[in-house]
């Protein structure tokens, strides 16, 4: 196990980065494609590889497509249509009943959207004492299922605001088809930030990376993501704590295009945890845990307090990040 916090050990330390990545070399992009620009922007700002969950969201649009639709939106002549949705790889079709994230995934602590605590997974929050090598515990279901949508080019995304007026004007059919999902997104994105919290809902890959750089106060980033893991009992084999003062967590939310709810709170610790099967002792996966050490500003009706049986400010609350979410830390 690496003990140094140097860049090489962080980049190649398998506990934190033994994730399944797509090979960029095997995928050809036209020099005129937006995806090639998105990949370039990633490697100019992020020190490790792009997780598969992000790679799948790269835009298939060409720069000619981008300029055409940017011009329409600027002139307020844009109208949602199947051709654009297909071309841009957006989700504008009926049957979006799975678009809404599971109600037990209470990734925001601002109380913007009431959660039925009676239906919450009792393993979704835990104390930091759970993170002990050799400990046996029940892992929550980290498999989130949201229709895959591509990022919009930054030039188009910048013309859209995360507001009911903007979304319903640009995507009226999609809003009606998945109203509950989009209303939940709007409630999280427009809720007031907690004391000490910095939050944003980036609408493009470039916006997400730029926000992480701003919140962390650094120009170079590392990204952490959980491997796909089923709900079951596991043993903790190894734990890697990242000695960082700040963490930016980005949770995917539902809009017709790829979007995230990102926030950074004070007194946050992040860990990469290697799991093994209790019986066979064979490696299973690596999952990322975030521990909020100061819960004093959380609403008293937060589901975490019912699960952990204490009140705001009386203890820390830890949770795993799902297979589609990201955690950003700065390169020292």
Please describe the structure with a list of short key phrases separated by commas or semicolons.
disordered N terminus, single chain, globular, 12 helices, alpha+beta, 332 residues, 5-stranded antiparallel sheet
Number of helices: 12
What is the overall shape? globular
Average pLDDT number: 83
The radius of gyration over CA amounts to: 20 Å
The H/E string reads: HHHHHHEHHHHEHEEEEEEHEE
The unreliable regions are 1-27, 100-118
The largest sheet is: 5 strands, antiparallel
Fraction of residues in β-strands: 15-25%
Based on secondary structure, the structural category is alpha+beta
Distance from N terminus to C terminus (CA atoms, Å) equals 19 Å
- Major β-sheet strand ordering: 1-4-7-8-9
Percent range of helical residues: 25-40%
Q: Oligomeric status of the shown chains? A: single chain
Strands, count: 10
Describe this structure in words.
There is one protein chain. It contains twelve helices and ten strands. By secondary structure, it is α+β, with helices and mostly antiparallel strands. The chain has a five-stranded antiparallel sheet. Strand 7 and strand 8 form a beta hairpin. It is globular and about 60 Å long.
SSE topology sketch:
Layout: H1 7-12, H2 14-17, H3 34-45, H4 52-55, H5 63-74, H6 82-88, E1 136-139, H7 154-157, H8 164-170, H9 172-177, H10 179-190, E2 198-200, H11 205-216, E3 221-224, E4 232-242, E5 248-253, E6 259-264, E7 268-276, E8 283-292, H12 303-308, E9 317-320, E10 326-330
Describe the structure concisely for a colleague:
By secondary structure, the chain is α+β, with helices and mostly antiparallel strands.
């Amino acid at each position: 196990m690496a003990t140094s916090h140097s860049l090489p050990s962080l980049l190649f330390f398998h506990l934190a980065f033994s994730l399944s990545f797509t090979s960029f070399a095997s995928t050809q992009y036209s020099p005129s494609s937006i995806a090639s620009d998105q990949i370039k922007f990633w490697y100019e700002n992020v020190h490790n590889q792009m997780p598969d969950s992000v790679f799948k969201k790269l835009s298939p649009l060409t720069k000619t497509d981008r300029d055409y639709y940017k011009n329409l939106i600027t002139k307020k002549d844009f109208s949602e249509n199947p051709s654009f949705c297909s071309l841009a790889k957006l989700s504008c079709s009926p049957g979006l009943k799975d678009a809404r994230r599971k109600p037990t995934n209470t990734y925001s602590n601002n109380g913007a959207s009431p959660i039925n605590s009676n239906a919450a997974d009792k393993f979704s929050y835990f104390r930091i004492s759970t993170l002990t090598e050799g400990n046996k515990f029940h892992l929550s279901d980290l498999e989130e299922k949201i229709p895959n949508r591509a990022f919009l080019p930054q030039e188009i995304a910048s013309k859209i605001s995360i507001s009911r007026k903007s979304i319903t004007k640009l995507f009226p059919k999609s809003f009606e088809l998945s109203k509950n999902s989009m209303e939940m997104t709007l409630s999280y994105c427009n809720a007031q930030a907690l004391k000490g919290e910095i939050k944003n809902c980036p609408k493009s890959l470039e916006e997400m990376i730029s926000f992480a750089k701003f919140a962390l106060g650094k120009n170079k980033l590392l990204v952490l993501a959980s491997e796909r893991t089923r709900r079951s009992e596991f043993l903790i084999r190894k734990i890697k704590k990242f000695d960082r003062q700040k963490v930016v967590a980005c949770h995917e939310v539902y809009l017709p295009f790829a979007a995230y709810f990102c926030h950074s709170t004070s007194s946050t610790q992040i860990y990469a945890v290697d799991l093994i099967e209790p019986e066979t002792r064979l490696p299973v996966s690596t999952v990322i845990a975030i521990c909020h050490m100061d819960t004093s500003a959380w609403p008293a009706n937060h589901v975490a307090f019912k699960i952990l049986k204490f009140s705001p400010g009386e203890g820390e609350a830890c949770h795993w990040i799902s297979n589609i979410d990201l955690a950003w830390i700065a390169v020292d």
